[in-house]
Write a structure and sequence with these properties.
Elements: H1 3-15, E1 20-24, E2 31-36, E3 51-55, E4 64-67, E5 71-76, E6 90-93, H2 96-112, E7 117-128, H3 133-143, E8 148-154, E9 158-164, E10 167-172, E11 175-186, H4 197-214, E12 218-223, E13 227-231, E14 234-245, H5 252-259, E15 267-268, H6 270-280, E16 291-301, E17 317-326, E18 330-334, E19 337-346, H7 352-367
Antiparallel strand pairs: 1-2, 1-8, 2-5, 3-4, 3-16, 6-7, 7-15, 7-19, 8-9, 9-18, 10-11, 10-17, 11-14, 12-14, 13-14, 16-17, 18-19
Helix pairs in contact: 2-7
Length: 372
């Protein structure tokens, strides 16, 4: 399908106020869409469902699914034509003093309790004279090929856009992979940068946590060397983790809810960090720092071509896979405003002013696709 037809289908579906998601996996040029045929709000019951899942940060609240069985799928490999940017009148509202006070409270709590890290976030509201979510999605595709880029809509929930650099988990048959991602710097033309102790500690928190929680589920775990990676105009520390699911590990629900939320979006210890967030952040994160992606997607695999396999070509097998991502660098579009979500990891070595500046750098990444 041409990209023109692909996006025209999505626009027509959106104008009918029917649920959909359009997305592109990291480092690919395929763009997928799942268009739900009715406007029912389907909810996850046990993670045995098959579809595109959209889950909030708060695990006590319902995760939403666009079921494959209730939808039609689209795919384009065509180049995306990005319209010429236009200047949009906007007014940006944030609250520096409030966030700095929150971070200071987090640092004090870490120094006085057993809390070692807490991820604290805020919103930034951009009032727009006009908005075009599909155009913004195209610009994200054009500028964030290494991220998971998406545009998700349900008339009963809202419209969300994002370009997240962080994988929660990948499962294909019995193979498992994830990553530990932490630390943030501006990209200044090179990946050869120095990381301070605070950022290294953040990375170690996440890596150690993932290793511990995976032990009941995964064997033969392998960790890559920690490396600097680029996401948009930011740099992060990343460790890739992979292994094999243990025999008898057949509960996707237990695996997902053990992994989520990670210290990269919540903190450590998890329970104490989550309670601090609920008690002190003055807003509802909704789907920010939740997770999203393909859940139990079935793909028919054909045998290799060749004379020996001619008779076997009709006997392909179904491969089931799950690819979930942490919902970072995202925003919610509603009426004439965009609500941007941004946060950062706080440790004993954090500085409140520096943490504020980090959130500014992160919002610029997503803000660039809606304001010119």
């Amino acid at each position: 399908m041409t990209s023109k037809d692909f996006f025209n289908n999505i626009i027509e579906h959106y104008e009918k106020e029917l649920p959909f998601v359009a997305y592109s996996m990291p480092n690919t040029f395929e763009i997928n869409a799942v268009l739900q045929k009715d406007n029912t709000l389907y909810k996850i019951e046990n993670f045995e469902e098959s579809g595109f899942v959209f889950s909030p940060f708060d695990i006590r609240k319902d995760a939403i699914i666009i079921p494959y069985s209730k939808s039609r799928k689209l795919l384009t490999l065509d180049d995306v034509i990005v319209e010429k940017p236009e200047v949009i009148d906007s007014e940006i509202i944030n609250n520096k003093a409030q966030h700095i006070a929150l971070v200071s409270k987090g640092i004090n709590t870490i120094n006085e309790t057993n809390l070692e890290k807490v991820v604290l976030s805020r919103t930034e509201t951009v009032h727009l004279s006009k908005s075009n979510p599909i155009a913004s999605f195209k610009r994200l595709l054009n500028t964030h090929n290494s991220a998971f880029v998406y545009c998700w809509y349900h008339p009963n929930v809202g419209l969300w856009l994002g370009a997240t650099p962080e994988t929660l988990l990948n499962v294909e048959r019995n193979r498992f992979s994830t990553m530990a991602l932490a630390g943030t710097q501006d990209y200044k033309g090179t990946l050869e940068v120095e990381w301070n102790d605070k950022e290294k500690d953040e990375q170690n928190f996440v890596t150690d946590y993932v290793k511990d929680v995976l032990n009941p589920f995964v064997e033969n775990i392998e960790f890559s060397e920690t490396k600097t990676v680029k996401a948009g105009e930011l740099l992060h520390l990343r460790t890739d983790i992979q292994g094999q699911l243990k025999t008898g590990t057949n509960s996707m629900q237990k695996l997902i809810l053990t992994m989520h939320p990670t210290p990269a979006v919540c903190g450590f210890p998890k329970r104490e960090a989550m309670q601090f967030i609920f008690d002190n952040e003055d807003y509802n994160r909704e789907f920010y720092t939740g997770f999203l992606g393909e859940l139990n997607k079935e793909t028919k695999i054909q045998p290799r071509s060749g004379r020996r396999n001619i008779e076997n070509r009709a006997y392909g097998y179904q491969k089931r896979s799950t690819h979930l991502f942490v919902n970072l660098r995202c925003m919610k579009l509603q009426d004439s405003k965009a609500v941007l979500f941004v946060g950062g990891g706080i440790t004993k070595d954090s500085n409140s002013e520096d943490e504020w500046n980090e959130t500014i750098n992160k919002t610029n990444t997503i803000k660039s696709v809606i304001v010119f």
